[in-house]
Amino acid sequence: MIESKVLSKIESIVGSKNFSTTIEDKICYSYDATPLIKQYPEAIVFPTEVEQIAKILQLANEEKFSVVPRGAGTGLSGGSIPVENSIVLVMTRWNKILEIDEANLTMLIEPGVISELIDIEAGKRGLFYPPDPGSIKFCTIGGNVAENAGGLRGLKYGVTKNYVLGLEMVTPTGEIIFSGGKNVKDVAGYNLRDIMIGSEGTLGIFTKILLRLIPRPTNSKTILSFFDSTIQSGEAVSEIISSKIIPSMIEFLDRTTIKCVEEYAHIGLNTNLDALLLIEVDGNGSEVGRDAETIQNICRKHQAVDVITATDENEALRLKSARRTAFSALARVKPTTILEDATVPRSRLPEMLEQIQKIVSEENVLLGNFGHAGDGNLHPTCLTDERDKDEIHKAEKTFDRIFNSAIKLGGTITGEHGTGLSKKKFLEAVVGTAGLEFMKKVKLSWDPNNILNPGKIFTLKPKCEGALPLSRENIKEFSN
Fold first, then answer.
1. What is the DSSP letter of 304?
2. Which of 54, 354, 365, 376 is exposed most, by the fewest CB atoms within 10 A?
3. What is the mean pLDDT of residues 113-139?
């Protein structure tokens, strides 16, 4: 419990209009998009100046309370869920685009800018910001950087880290620093910028982000291929990649997801087939058409039942909606939707698809599988009901097996959602004991009092830093 005199000091830093301890706000900021976990914060703070953030973190070190940074709350690993003895520091009001430098192909923005707006503004100038996470219409760039978010175009264009040139940030002890810049080359000292990207709010709070933009492609082809077999679709993906063609996206949907999408969006999908691949190639010349034809032939070679190519941009958008609506479509089926992101090397994709099918059958769970097949990043999504303890137990066992299978195939427990609270128990199996201990040393060197988003990624000391299970009992407890 944070003492009332400390809460008053925090309020005096940001002003009463930017500070709240109401039960309504505590409920709103007690959870993010991760199912099953929540915890109430002691207060919610909306800083308006970078100096206010610095003062809050300095006070946190003096008074030993925790600070949990938060953007739009779209995260799926519990990264922005409050912890014991914490305040939530909300950055959504920091939503200005500060500069678009066409000469250097950069954009300087605040962390609360909605991700979709970045590419819209770049597009007005013939430029392109490729990262496009599934929550692009709602998520903010600060969270994207904190989680190193990916998206549908990650196969060809990479993920968020490939477009971050510089960061202004407040360190856990309250210093304000800027790392990086507009230089194409810069190897002066340690690359603090890249350490921060993907640090999940545990090493600093972003206040400005300098992004790299690229020329926008002028031509694209969108292809939809249906398969009788999930394994055949995986083999088609492997051959496309090995044929030296790099599509801008190769997305996968299994039968359950296809059925849910069609019921939700009425696109006209064949719901009697096991798998669908959405493939797009883009560029600026005639190679786009040649690559599209090669991909069509590869899909047919692997027994694609039907191959559809969009004839214009409107049809391309309609076909792409099959993938973009996948999560929304699945979320309608059951009260609780648990979305994960196991990732394997692309050459092991057919094996991973086969393993997931086997696990789902043996555990008897309802699971839709979709994801970024081109970069080996799958999103197995369990449709369940948190009120049924047996169902939740089966879901947990299913994901334990899926993650262990991914690790055995040389993969990882998360390709883009982060470790957060929900997957930290698996981290040592991925990075090894020495790797995990080194990460802890980095955290403690930056944050000696462990005040910034503690308990996320790993636990440094025995302390009740995890979130509580979402339940009627916990809600009742917090209400008293």
1. E
2. 354
3. 97
